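User: Predict structure, ligand nicotinamide-adenine-dinucleotide.
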Amino acid sequence: MSVVDRKHEAEPAVESRAADRNGAGRIPVENPATGNTIAHVPDLGAEAVADLVDRARRAQPGWEALGFEGRAEVMYEARAWIVENRDRMLRTVMEETGKTREDAIVGDWSFICDSLGFWAKRAPRYLADERVRPHSPFLIGKRVVVRHRPVGVVGVIGPWNFPLNLCFGDAIPALMAGNAVVLKPSEVTPLSTLFMAEGMRAAGLPGDVMPVATGGGETGAALVDHSDMIMFTGSTATGRKIMARAAETLTPVSLELGGKDPMIVLRDADVERAANMAVMGAMSNGGQVCTSVERVYVEEPIYDEFVRRVVEKTGALRQGPPADGGSVDVGAVTFPPQAEVVEEHVRDAVDKGAQVLVGGERGEGPGRFYRPTVLTGVDHSMKAMTEETFGPTLPIMKVRDEEEALRLANDTPYGLNSSVWTRDLERGEAVARRIEAGNACVNDALVNFLAQEAPFGGVKSSGVGARHSSQGIRKYTNAQTILITRFGPKRELYFYPYSKRVTAVMERLITLLYGRRRRKRKK
Ligand code: NAD
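Assistant: Predicted complex:
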C-alpha cells in the first residue's frame, strides 16, 4: 500500500509499510473545500512509533557526522526541490486544508523556502562552541568551553492550520543541529508532511533521519514517550497533556499553543491601514492562525469610522473553493469541529446582545465554509472575546481610552501575539511593552512571525519556549560545559589536606573580595 492513496503520488514511505505489517488502521484525509476524501494514511500505533524512533536514533550519528556544511547542502538542495515542485506542493497544502493559493504561498511554501536557507546559514553561528572566561578566583588560568550537542531524536508534533510551516518547519533547525527528527503531522493534514519527506529524500537526506509517523493523538503520545525532546504546536489543552506525559520521562518540551490576540487601535491611528490589517489579520488563512487578530479594541473617537471601513472591506471578500491564484480571498474551515466552535461563539455573542454586521453564518457547501463575520456590541462576557475562536470572525469593542484597552487586552489567559495602532511611535511602543504577550507589533500584525532572527513564543497559556533565533535551535541541543586546566600546579590551594593556616588565608581573601559594600552612585 502506498502512504497516500489515489492522486497523491508521494513515494510509499517506509513507515507506512511498517504500519501495514502491524495491521494499523487508516485515516481518511478530506478536502474541506469540496468535502471529498482525497487520500488515506496509516494510523500508527505505539509499537510502530517506537520502531520509527529506534531507527531514527540509529541513523542520527551518521547525520551528525556530516557536520554543518554537509547538512546545509541537503537544506539548499531541498529548497531547490520545493521551488521546482511548487505546484504539486501548493496543491497538496491547498487540498488538505481548503486554504487559498495565496495563504499556502505565504504561510507555508515561501516560509519553508526561507527557513531552509536561514537555518543552513545561521546554525553554525548559533551553535558554535563558546569560550567562556570564568570570573571565579578559584578558576584563574582555566579554560571553559560550552558546546551544543544534539539531543538525539526530536519528536515534532504539528497542527492542521499550517501543515508545512508548523511541522516540517520546526524540523529544519532540529536537523541542522544534527538531530534525527520524527514528524507527527496532524491527522487532519498529513499529506504536506509526507510530500516534504519525499522532497528531503530527493535532496539527499539519509534514510530514517526524518521518518513520518502518521496518526492521531495516541500516535503523538507514543512519540512523547520515546523521543529525546518534543516540539509541539497545537492547542493549549493538548499542550498540557503533552507536558504532563513528558514529565514521566523528564523529556524537555517546547510548546507553541493557542492565542486570543488583541489589536488596540488608538485615536491617532491611520484608520485605513488599521482597518485593512484588521480584516487581513482576522480573515487570512480563514482566521485559522494562532497569531490572527482575534479581537479589536478601538478608542471612541474613531470607532465608528473604523467599523464602517472594516464592514465595507469584509463584505467585499470572496469565499469559496480555492482554485488558482486570485480566485477567492477566504478559504474553507479545515477542521470539522472548528466550524462548530465558530458558530457557537457567534451564537453566544448574539444571545448576549452583540450585533452581526456582516456574515454570521455558514457559507454554501458542499465544502465547509463560514462567512467572514464582523461583530460589534461585544464585551468580555462573550466567548468571542475571551476564548480562541480560530475562524473568520472579527469582534470589535469600543473603549474609552488606552488604559481601558490595555486592561481588556490583558484580561486573558493567553499571551501570544498582539498589536497597537497609532501614529505616535513612542506611545505605541510604550503600550506594546505593557501587553502581556510574547510578541507585539506597532502598526502591523502577523508579519512579525517572519523575523526568524528574533524569538517567537507565547507566555501565560500560549506556550513554553520559543521558535526562531538562537533559542529556536539551542532548544534542540544539550549544552555541555568542558573545563580545561592546562598548567595546573601539583596542588591547588583548596586541595587536601585542609590546614588551619591555608583556611585562614582563604577566608581573609574572600572577605577582602566580597566584604566591601557597593558605593552608592552620585546622582
Ligand atoms: P491539537 O492540539 O488538537 O492537535 C495538535 C497535534 O497534537 C495533532 O497532531 C494531534 O494529533 C496531536 N495530539 C492530540 N492529542 C495528543 C496527545 N495526547 N499527545 C500527543 N499529541 C497529541 O491542535 P490543532 O487543532 O491541530 O491546532 C489548532 C491549535 O493550534 C490552535 O489552538 C492554535 O492556536 C494552535 N497553534 C498555535 C501556534 C503557535 O505558534 N503558538 C501555531 C499554530 C497553531
